[in-house]
Design goal:
Elements lengths: L6 H14 L11 H8 L3 H14 L2 E4 L3 E4 L4 H25 L2 H20 L2 H19 L2 H20 L6 H17 L2 H23 L2
Antiparallel strand pairs: 1-2
Helix pairs in contact: 1-3, 1-7, 2-3, 4-6, 4-7, 4-8, 4-9, 5-6, 5-8, 6-8, 8-9
Protein backbone atom coordinates (compact mmCIF):
# COMPACT_ATOMS: atom_id res chain seq x y z
CA UNK A 1 0.00 0.00 0.00
CA UNK A 2 1.31 3.42 -0.97
CA UNK A 3 1.73 5.85 1.96
CA UNK A 4 -0.68 8.76 2.07
CA UNK A 5 0.86 11.78 0.39
CA UNK A 6 1.21 15.14 2.10
CA UNK A 7 -1.25 17.78 0.94
CA UNK A 8 1.66 20.10 0.12
CA UNK A 9 3.14 17.47 -2.22
CA UNK A 10 -0.22 17.04 -3.96
CA UNK A 11 -0.47 20.82 -4.33
CA UNK A 12 3.08 20.98 -5.70
CA UNK A 13 2.33 18.36 -8.37
CA UNK A 14 -0.87 20.17 -9.37
CA UNK A 15 0.86 23.55 -9.71
CA UNK A 16 3.81 21.97 -11.50
CA UNK A 17 1.42 20.47 -14.07
CA UNK A 18 -0.18 23.89 -14.60
CA UNK A 19 3.23 25.45 -15.20
CA UNK A 20 4.67 22.71 -17.42
CA UNK A 21 1.57 22.58 -19.65
CA UNK A 22 1.34 26.40 -19.82
CA UNK A 23 -2.01 26.62 -18.06
CA UNK A 24 -0.01 29.12 -16.01
CA UNK A 25 1.84 31.08 -18.68
CA UNK A 26 5.44 32.27 -18.22
CA UNK A 27 5.36 35.74 -16.68
CA UNK A 28 1.76 35.42 -15.52
CA UNK A 29 0.76 36.28 -11.93
CA UNK A 30 0.22 33.44 -9.49
CA UNK A 31 -2.82 34.08 -7.29
CA UNK A 32 -2.97 31.85 -4.24
CA UNK A 33 -6.77 32.01 -4.03
CA UNK A 34 -7.12 30.85 -7.63
CA UNK A 35 -4.79 27.91 -7.00
CA UNK A 36 -6.73 26.80 -3.92
CA UNK A 37 -9.98 26.99 -5.88
CA UNK A 38 -8.65 24.99 -8.84
CA UNK A 39 -6.95 22.31 -6.75
CA UNK A 40 -9.53 22.08 -3.97
CA UNK A 41 -6.71 22.14 -1.44
CA UNK A 42 -6.26 24.39 1.55
CA UNK A 43 -4.28 27.60 1.71
CA UNK A 44 -1.51 26.15 3.88
CA UNK A 45 -0.42 23.31 1.54
CA UNK A 46 -0.76 25.58 -1.51
CA UNK A 47 1.36 28.25 0.15
CA UNK A 48 3.99 25.68 1.11
CA UNK A 49 4.08 24.37 -2.47
CA UNK A 50 4.41 27.89 -3.88
CA UNK A 51 7.30 28.72 -1.55
CA UNK A 52 9.02 25.51 -2.64
CA UNK A 53 8.64 26.58 -6.27
CA UNK A 54 10.10 29.98 -5.47
CA UNK A 55 13.14 28.26 -3.95
CA UNK A 56 13.86 26.34 -7.17
CA UNK A 57 13.08 29.20 -9.56
CA UNK A 58 9.85 28.02 -11.19
CA UNK A 59 8.06 30.94 -9.56
CA UNK A 60 9.60 34.32 -8.74
CA UNK A 61 8.62 36.73 -5.97
CA UNK A 62 8.64 40.36 -7.07
CA UNK A 63 8.63 43.32 -4.68
CA UNK A 64 5.14 44.84 -4.41
CA UNK A 65 3.92 42.65 -7.28
CA UNK A 66 3.61 39.27 -5.62
CA UNK A 67 4.31 35.93 -7.29
CA UNK A 68 4.61 35.18 -10.98
CA UNK A 69 5.64 32.25 -13.14
CA UNK A 70 9.27 32.54 -14.22
CA UNK A 71 9.89 33.35 -17.87
CA UNK A 72 11.41 30.97 -20.40
CA UNK A 73 14.98 32.15 -20.99
CA UNK A 74 16.04 30.82 -24.40
CA UNK A 75 19.75 31.42 -23.80
CA UNK A 76 19.62 29.76 -20.38
CA UNK A 77 17.70 26.76 -21.70
CA UNK A 78 20.80 25.17 -23.22
CA UNK A 79 22.43 25.31 -19.78
CA UNK A 80 19.31 23.64 -18.36
CA UNK A 81 19.72 20.78 -20.83
CA UNK A 82 23.46 20.50 -20.18
CA UNK A 83 22.87 20.24 -16.44
CA UNK A 84 20.00 17.83 -16.92
CA UNK A 85 22.22 15.65 -19.13
CA UNK A 86 24.65 14.98 -16.26
CA UNK A 87 21.81 14.13 -13.88
CA UNK A 88 19.91 11.95 -16.38
CA UNK A 89 23.06 9.95 -17.06
CA UNK A 90 23.43 9.25 -13.35
CA UNK A 91 19.75 8.42 -12.88
CA UNK A 92 19.72 6.09 -15.89
CA UNK A 93 22.77 4.24 -14.60
CA UNK A 94 21.28 3.87 -11.12
CA UNK A 95 17.93 2.71 -12.49
CA UNK A 96 19.54 0.08 -14.73
CA UNK A 97 21.40 -1.27 -11.72
CA UNK A 98 18.70 -0.99 -9.04
CA UNK A 99 15.29 -1.36 -10.69
CA UNK A 100 13.02 -4.20 -9.58
CA UNK A 101 11.48 -6.57 -12.12
CA UNK A 102 8.06 -4.85 -11.93
CA UNK A 103 9.71 -1.46 -12.39
CA UNK A 104 11.60 -2.65 -15.46
CA UNK A 105 8.33 -3.90 -16.95
CA UNK A 106 6.57 -0.63 -16.13
CA UNK A 107 9.36 1.42 -17.70
CA UNK A 108 9.08 -0.53 -20.95
CA UNK A 109 5.28 -0.20 -20.85
CA UNK A 110 5.50 3.59 -20.53
CA UNK A 111 8.03 3.85 -23.37
CA UNK A 112 5.82 1.72 -25.63
CA UNK A 113 2.87 3.97 -24.77
CA UNK A 114 4.96 6.97 -25.86
CA UNK A 115 5.83 5.31 -29.18
CA UNK A 116 2.19 4.44 -29.83
CA UNK A 117 0.98 7.92 -28.91
CA UNK A 118 3.62 9.46 -31.21
CA UNK A 119 2.45 7.25 -34.08
CA UNK A 120 -1.14 8.43 -33.49
CA UNK A 121 -0.04 12.04 -33.15
CA UNK A 122 -1.73 12.18 -29.73
CA UNK A 123 0.32 14.78 -27.88
CA UNK A 124 -1.67 14.59 -24.64
CA UNK A 125 -1.17 10.81 -24.33
CA UNK A 126 2.47 11.22 -25.34
CA UNK A 127 3.18 13.73 -22.57
CA UNK A 128 1.20 11.71 -20.01
CA UNK A 129 3.25 8.59 -20.78
CA UNK A 130 6.42 10.69 -20.67
CA UNK A 131 5.52 11.93 -17.18
CA UNK A 132 4.69 8.41 -16.00
CA UNK A 133 8.00 7.14 -17.37
CA UNK A 134 9.88 9.81 -15.41
CA UNK A 135 8.12 8.78 -12.21
CA UNK A 136 8.97 5.09 -12.54
CA UNK A 137 12.57 5.71 -13.62
CA UNK A 138 13.10 8.07 -10.70
CA UNK A 139 11.68 5.55 -8.25
CA UNK A 140 13.80 2.80 -9.76
CA UNK A 141 17.00 4.85 -9.50
CA UNK A 142 16.71 5.11 -5.71
CA UNK A 143 18.85 8.24 -6.00
CA UNK A 144 16.77 10.84 -4.21
CA UNK A 145 19.39 13.59 -4.44
CA UNK A 146 19.66 13.35 -8.22
CA UNK A 147 15.87 13.15 -8.63
CA UNK A 148 15.37 16.22 -6.44
CA UNK A 149 17.83 18.18 -8.58
CA UNK A 150 16.51 17.04 -11.94
CA UNK A 151 12.78 17.53 -11.22
CA UNK A 152 12.65 21.32 -11.79
CA UNK A 153 14.81 20.97 -14.92
CA UNK A 154 12.32 18.49 -16.36
CA UNK A 155 9.52 20.98 -15.76
CA UNK A 156 11.54 23.66 -17.58
CA UNK A 157 12.08 21.31 -20.53
CA UNK A 158 8.44 20.20 -20.56
CA UNK A 159 7.02 23.71 -20.66
CA UNK A 160 9.61 24.68 -23.32
CA UNK A 161 8.29 21.79 -25.39
CA UNK A 162 4.67 22.86 -24.87
CA UNK A 163 5.53 26.43 -25.86
CA UNK A 164 7.28 25.40 -29.10
CA UNK A 165 5.76 21.98 -29.81
CA UNK A 166 5.10 22.90 -33.45
CA UNK A 167 8.86 22.53 -33.97
CA UNK A 168 9.16 19.16 -32.25
CA UNK A 169 9.27 15.62 -33.62
CA UNK A 170 7.58 13.36 -31.10
CA UNK A 171 8.48 10.24 -33.08
CA UNK A 172 12.17 11.01 -32.63
CA UNK A 173 11.57 11.76 -28.96
CA UNK A 174 9.73 8.49 -28.48
CA UNK A 175 12.63 6.53 -30.02
CA UNK A 176 15.06 8.15 -27.60
CA UNK A 177 12.85 7.30 -24.63
CA UNK A 178 12.56 3.71 -25.85
CA UNK A 179 16.35 3.42 -26.10
CA UNK A 180 16.63 4.62 -22.51
CA UNK A 181 13.85 2.29 -21.33
CA UNK A 182 15.37 -0.76 -23.01
CA UNK A 183 18.71 -0.11 -21.37
CA UNK A 184 17.14 0.10 -17.92
CA UNK A 185 14.85 -2.88 -18.54
CA UNK A 186 17.77 -5.10 -19.55
CA UNK A 187 19.99 -3.90 -16.72
CA UNK A 188 22.62 -2.53 -19.11
CA UNK A 189 24.05 0.64 -17.60
CA UNK A 190 25.95 1.51 -20.81
CA UNK A 191 22.79 1.10 -22.89
CA UNK A 192 20.74 3.17 -20.43
CA UNK A 193 23.32 5.97 -20.30
CA UNK A 194 23.49 6.00 -24.11
CA UNK A 195 19.70 6.33 -24.16
CA UNK A 196 19.87 9.25 -21.74
CA UNK A 197 22.42 10.97 -23.99
CA UNK A 198 20.25 10.31 -27.06
CA UNK A 199 17.28 11.91 -25.30
CA UNK A 200 19.31 14.98 -24.28
CA UNK A 201 20.73 15.26 -27.83
CA UNK A 202 17.14 15.32 -29.11
CA UNK A 203 16.15 18.05 -26.64
CA UNK A 204 19.24 20.09 -27.47
CA UNK A 205 18.61 19.93 -31.22
CA UNK A 206 15.01 20.95 -30.61
CA UNK A 207 16.10 23.90 -28.46
CA UNK A 208 18.70 25.06 -30.96
CA UNK A 209 16.09 25.09 -33.75
CA UNK A 210 14.04 27.52 -31.67
CA UNK A 211 16.97 29.68 -30.56
CA UNK A 212 18.47 29.96 -34.06
CA UNK A 213 15.25 31.19 -35.65
Amino acid sequence: MQPKRRAADVAYDAIEAMISTLQLQPGSPVVEANITDSTGLGRTPVREALLRMVSIGLIVQLPRRGLQVSNIDLADHLDVIQTRRALERLIASCAARRATAPQRAAILHCAKAMVQAAERGDLDDYMLADHQLDIVVHQASQNHSAVKCVAPLIVQCRRFWYAYQHEGDVTEGARAHMHLAQGIATGSEDHAVAGAHQLMDYLERFARRIIDQ
